[in-house]
């Protein structure tokens, strides 16, 4: 949320409840993050208006549009937008990400999501979202197709012979000619190959299907992990799956979410956390929980625990890993629904940590050096103040400890910042010709 | 095309053949147009890579992305992007145009097109484009749905009571609950109502279906007209159809294309035109003509006239009005295929006029005061030089004659600049409630 990741942040005196449509607010955030030499900015998204506008700020600028504005307002920071494979077509989305990569000089990233829930489905002519496994099957084919589109121009198509009137070399254009289960896409992209070749490919679902998808395609993974032990186990599991999928485990960066509540003393930080919790609208939290856990509203009593006998996550056609995390958290800490809502208010399942800048840096170091994280998705509870204090107070500590960069490499792409190679369109195109030959179509 | 509307413009020594992906090039164009107090910038589009990249510059930045960049680089000028109703979904497109309207403070326009031809269709899982009439039927429903989405937020949803924790008023949110032939769209947009309410609605097809569509929905119409008589007749026809559709004819502005080839003497302008014509690659022109007229390549001999017995336009499942214009031009002026390609090279069917700044201003005045145009779509043959000379030499003459503004009204929206009212979401929502009641669905 634009006023911060704590759902009640908009109610603080310092917050602007209309920040979501104020591009100056986002420009200032992006510049602060760039001052802190962050890798990238990340915008979540779903093509739907959630819930009741009474209960929290609603309505946003569409993420690729907003990141295009921020590309012009910044120089170095990566720009990662969420977009759904269930409610887009590959040709349109490949164009848009390639275009963002062009206008940002190689700073674009795509957070690939499948979009759970019936509300979004009903905005696109469906009664409900396709089943979980089917959404991921479509996501895999979608990703294959957009990669073919991004590879449909070699780097050196341009010839530019004005005298002879030859602009480009058609032999270096490789139409996908894709015929699949979900998509048929014949022609080459109408955008030349972008600075990064592909945007950085990001994934954020931690279900079984999600982890398998990440192992095959993702170069960065956002994940919600509540404890160091769980985060280590997720980290090891995903790296192993990546290796099993035939990829270098170093090629996927694992980035747990962290909601840092920062105070000059630990007591001050805890007080700040408690003050935010007091501002939570529990009726809103109950409704959100009812949707996430697919439990009827009347079975969620604020002062009781969650109902017994909840179905296993694999029977949930929604956000399976978030469901599992929330149910486990409630059971482990024996929380009432009210307490659970309080815990989730900070980061909707992401870990909240309240402490001094030194303590926050310690936690980050512990997870980073302890096999639990390659980096973090920092989700300040209140914006812009929570980002400013992180950049001014925590980042310098991390830098002093040699854990974080002190400056950007000028002109570096997002992909290079993550230590990833630039995809080779030539190799991909020749590989594709082989496949086409085997299936009998001409290439 | 980014180097100019003449197809051979990229071959001039002054042109940058890579201008299409150079955002600085477009920023400079936008600023020049703003210096000339133009109404707006307009970007054409089709989701397809046309033809052979050997024969002319290919590959562009996706228009809404580029206009978002230009929104940040300019202050006043309108930003009109073409987008297809055949290859988009209403929810996604409504979001994107609403977002552009937000980030440009009310300067967005949508050129509504249906996208002819099989090449684009094959990028979206179809073998060929839907039939002409069906495309327009879908376009009409598409437009109705996006208008409902733009009206799904009243202007004053925001309440902002931090104390009580009430952000907005859900009663002022009106989900479309649209169930139609082509689309089902249930929920409200997730973007608050934008500065203009709707972007300016533009249309550019001049077929029978196109004119009927324009009469119902368009607020500005781009059209290709070769002679004053034809332009007058088109103008009168479209204004009459608009009246017949129950709208104020003043509510649709008719803007013929004009390719001004400007010289300090008439002879110099004609020489410049001839020099550009010499640079045309006739094989490319022949292929383009074959596609447009749907005549096999081997029946187009460069030194003969067009074949006899061409089908009537209503049997063409493509750009019907452009087909009709080109065939009429060839017949009227008894042109060989080579001569026809030369004539079309300047503006692909739009009128080319070569002369001094005074003569160009005279032509504009003649059409403007003679019932043929409410304004013009100026398509310089070479960019940026052709725009610069128009702004520096022609605009001052038009201003002196009292035909054109000398400055922008600060903060004016594009819609206001066209003398159009801001749509009223409240009225539209109550109208929709009536319809919903009659059809028995709840609202």
TrEMBL record, chains A, B:
<keyword id="KW-0560">Oxidoreductase</keyword>
<dbReference type="InterPro" id="IPR016215">
    <property type="entry name" value="NTA_MOA"/>
</dbReference>
<feature type="binding site">
    <location>
        <position position="207"/>
    </location>
    <ligand>
        <name>FMN</name>
    </ligand>
</feature>
<feature type="binding site">
    <location>
        <position position="132"/>
    </location>
    <ligand>
        <name>FMN</name>
    </ligand>
</feature>
<feature type="region of interest" description="Disordered">
    <location>
        <begin position="419"/>
        <end position="443"/>
    </location>
</feature>
<feature type="binding site">
    <location>
        <position position="82"/>
    </location>
    <ligand>
        <name>FMN</name>
    </ligand>
</feature>
<comment type="similarity">
    <text>Belongs to the NtaA/SnaA/DszA monooxygenase family.</text>
</comment>
<feature type="binding site">
    <location>
        <position position="136"/>
    </location>
    <ligand>
        <name>FMN</name>
    </ligand>
</feature>
<feature type="compositionally biased region" description="Basic and acidic residues">
    <location>
        <begin position="431"/>
        <end position="443"/>
    </location>
</feature>
<feature type="binding site">
    <location>
        <position position="45"/>
    </location>
    <ligand>
        <name>FMN</name>
    </ligand>
</feature>
<dbReference type="InterPro" id="IPR051260">
    <property type="entry name" value="Diverse_substr_monoxygenases"/>
</dbReference>
<dbReference type="InterPro" id="IPR036661">
    <property type="entry name" value="Luciferase-like_sf"/>
</dbReference>
<keyword id="KW-0503">Monooxygenase</keyword>
<keyword id="KW-0288">FMN</keyword>
<dbReference type="GO" id="GO:0016705">
    <property type="term" value="F:oxidoreductase activity, acting on paired donors, with incorporation or reduction of molecular oxygen"/>
</dbReference>
<keyword id="KW-0285">Flavoprotein</keyword>
<dbReference type="Pfam" id="PF00296">
    <property type="entry name" value="Bac_luciferase"/>
</dbReference>
<dbReference type="InterPro" id="IPR011251">
    <property type="entry name" value="Luciferase-like_dom"/>
</dbReference>
<feature type="binding site">
    <location>
        <position position="206"/>
    </location>
    <ligand>
        <name>FMN</name>
    </ligand>
</feature>
<feature type="domain" description="Luciferase-like">
    <location>
        <begin position="16"/>
        <end position="371"/>
    </location>
</feature>
<protein>
    <submittedName>
        <fullName>LLM class flavin-dependent oxidoreductase</fullName>
    </submittedName>
</protein>
<dbReference type="GO" id="GO:0004497">
    <property type="term" value="F:monooxygenase activity"/>
</dbReference>
């Amino acid at each position: 949320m634009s006023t911060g990741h704590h759902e009640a942040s908009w109610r603080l005196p310092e917050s602007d409840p209309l920040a979501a449509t104020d591009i100056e607010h986002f420009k200032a955030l992006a510049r602060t993050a760039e001052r802190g030499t962050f890798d990238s900015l990340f915008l979540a998204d779903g093509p739907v208006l959630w819930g009741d506008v009474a209960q929290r700020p609603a309505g946003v600028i569409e993420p690729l549009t907003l990141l295009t504005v921020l590309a012009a307002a910044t120089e170095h920071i990566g720009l990662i937008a969420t977009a759904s494979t269930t409610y887009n077509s590959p040709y349109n989305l490949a164009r848009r990400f390639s275009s963002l990569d062009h206008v940002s000089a190689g700073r674009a990233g795509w957070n690939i999501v499948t979009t759970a829930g019936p509300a979004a489905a009903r905005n696109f002519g469906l009664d409900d979202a396709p089943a979980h496994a089917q959404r991921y099957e479509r996501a895999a084919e979608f990703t294959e197709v957009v990669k073919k589109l991004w590879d449909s121009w070699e780097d050196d198509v341009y010839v530019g012979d004005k005298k002879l009137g030859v602009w480009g070399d058609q032999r270096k254009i490789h139409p996908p000619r894709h015929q699949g289960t979900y998509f048929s896409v014949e022609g080459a992209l109408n955008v030349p190959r972008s600075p990064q070749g592909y945007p950085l490919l990001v994934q954020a679902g931690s279900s079984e299907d999600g982890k398998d998808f990440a192992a095959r395609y993702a170069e960065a993974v956002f994940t919600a992990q509540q404890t160091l032990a769980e985060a280590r186990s997720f980290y090891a599991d995903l790296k192993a799956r990546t290796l099993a999928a035939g990829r270098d485990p170093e090629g996927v960066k694992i980035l747990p979410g962290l909601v840092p509540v920062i105070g000059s003393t630990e007591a001050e930080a805890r007080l700040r956390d408690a003050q935010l919790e007091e501002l939570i609208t529990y009726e809103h939290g109950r409704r959100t929980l009812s949707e996430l856990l697919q439990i009827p509203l009347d079975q969620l009593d604020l002062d009781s625990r969650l109902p017994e006998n909840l179905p296993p996550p694999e029977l949930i056609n929604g956000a399976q890993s978030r469901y599992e995390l929330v149910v486990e958290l409630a059971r482990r800490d024996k929380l009432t629904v009210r307490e659970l809502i309080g815990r989730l208010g900070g980061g909707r399942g992401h870990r909240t940590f309240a402490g001094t800048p030194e303590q926050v840096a310690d936690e980050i170091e512990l997870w980073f050096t302890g096999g639990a994280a390659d980096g973090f998705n920092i989700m300040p509870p209140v914006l812009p103040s929570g980002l400013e204090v992180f950049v001014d107070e925590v980042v310098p500590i991390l830098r002093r400890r040699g854990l974080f960069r002190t400056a950007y490499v000028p002109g570096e792409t997002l992909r290079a910042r993550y230590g990833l190679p630039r995809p080779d369109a030539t190799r991909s195109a020749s590989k594709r010709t082989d496949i086409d030959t085997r299936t009998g179509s001409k290439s």
